[in-house]
Design goal:
By secondary structure, the protein is of the alpha/beta class. The protein is about 50% helix and about 10% strand. The chain has 16 helices and eleven strands. The strands form three sheets. A six-stranded parallel β-sheet has the order 7-2-1-9-10-11, sandwiched between helices. It has a three-stranded antiparallel β-sheet with strand order 3-5-4. The protein has a two-stranded parallel sheet with strand order 6-8. Strand 4 and strand 5 form a beta hairpin. Helix 4 packs parallel to helix 15.
Length: about 375
């Protein structure tokens, strides 16, 4: 900043635009409303999230990773928002809780979920076999039918081996996509859409969901399916490393927090700290969360804090935005904004490149090890 005594000059440096919005007309497009009326506080941060995502992260050389936590698919956001983003080429790979993928399967199987309200008598619901997720309700049979689907599906020979979660979800998506085609109706499933677009989906805690519970039941029966969580760690690191090593960029869009947030961000420490390969962190960090940073919980951790771990490139912090709001509010607005402001991108089809990316990372690591032990100072630092 300039020396004190020139307030106008200082104001020009810290201000982007004068606050003088047009009146809301009632016929405004969502994208126009965000640009013109979402000016300050968390509305302003949501505008910045939308603009950085659309104007920078969707550039052709940028690989976009998305994390999904919280109960988003039961609320219909898989159908309304996530599938359109995948089909438009705006999301290249995903880390999700297993629960979101399990509930996504209800829609693929045409098992209905219903709107309700949060202040119901839960004892009465329990007596009548009704499940509640805040203001969403559905029959207990929906869980039983989805469990039965997974137990039957994973008996297929294609699952009788060890695989990472991306491969597992790809095979589930293949079946759901084929089933929808055979029935002549939309799949209405994120898993099916990701299969069709070759978008790999990882689950950072594969045992922490009803899908994992059913896989565990199969293992008690002597099933050969084993989930290789360590494969996932290296595969996701390979996605980021290969996205950036030829001059490209890596971006993360974080919905909520939890394990998916850490899993997508730890790709950079895996590359730098553990494998000892030179890297500088993700180029873009956008987060929608209602968690506070001062409690020390990961879900509220800021981009600046992540930068100290090597997760975010220190030179790209100005392009990092955290918006403190509910993902169920922000995601439909972000989806509407990006689809209105940006043409679809060619699909990157990272699943098809999974083996090659993994092998490229392995060879680079072997080369580095042959030259000496991994160097903890390999990452780029400030200055």
């Amino acid at each position: 900043m300039t020396e004190p005594g020139n307030p106008l000059s200082v104001l020009q440096q810290v201000s982007q635009h004068r606050i003088a919005p047009p009146a809301v007309s009632g016929s405004d497009l969502a994208a126009d409303l965000i640009d013109q009326a979402f000016l300050s506080y968390n509305a302003g941060r949501l505008r910045e999230v939308c603009q950085v995502f659309t104007r920078k992260m969707l550039e052709p050389n940028c690989t976009v990773g998305l994390t999904i936590s919280g109960a988003l698919t039961p609320a219909g956001l898989g159908m309304s928002c996530l599938i359109p983003l995948v089909q438009a080429g705006f999301v290249d790979w995903i880390v999700s809780t297993g629960a979101n993928l399990y509930h996504d399967t209800h829609y693929a199987l045409d098992l209905p979920l219903h709107q309700s309200r949060p202040n119901l008598d839960d004892f009465a619901l329990r007596q009548n076999d009704i499940i509640r997720i805040y203001d969403i309700v559905f029959d207990y049979a929906t869980l039983l039918d989805t469990d039965a689907f997974y137990r039957e599906l994973i008996r297929d020979d294609v699952f009788a081996r060890t695989m990472g979660t991306a491969e597992f979800h790809y095979e589930v998506g293949r079946y759901l996509h084929g089933r929808a085609q055979a029935l002549g109706r939309p799949a209405n499933s994120l898993l099916a859409a990701a299969y069709e677009a070759a978008v790999p989906i990882y689950t950072s805690s594969p045992g922490d969901s009803s899908i994992g519970m059913n896989l565990a039941a199969l293992s008690l029966q002597g099933g050969k399916l084993q989930i290789d969580a360590l494969r996932d760690v290296n595969e996701t690191a390979a996605i980021v490393y290969n996205a950036k090593r030829n001059g490209g960029e890596s971006a993360v869009l974080i919905l909520g927090g939890g394990s998916p947030k850490n899993f997508i961000l730890q790709t950079e420490p895996q590359i730098q700290e553990v494998l000892g390969l030179a890297e500088s962190g993700h180029d873009y960090f956008l987060q929608i969360t209602d968690a506070r940073p001062d409690t020390g919980g990961l879900s509220g951790a800021t981009a600046s804090e992540a930068m100290t771990w090597g997760k975010v490139d220190p030179e790209r912090l100005p392009d990092s935005v955290t918006c403190y709001t509910d993902s169920t509010i922000a995601l439909p607005l972000l989806t509407a904004y990006s689809l209105a402001r940006h043409a679809p991108r060619p699909l990157r089809r990272l699943y098809d490149q999974r083996e090659a990316s993994y092998e490229a990372l392995r060879l680079e690591y072997e080369k580095h090890r042959a030259e000496g032990e991994p160097d903890p100072s390999a990452r780029k630092t400030l200055g």
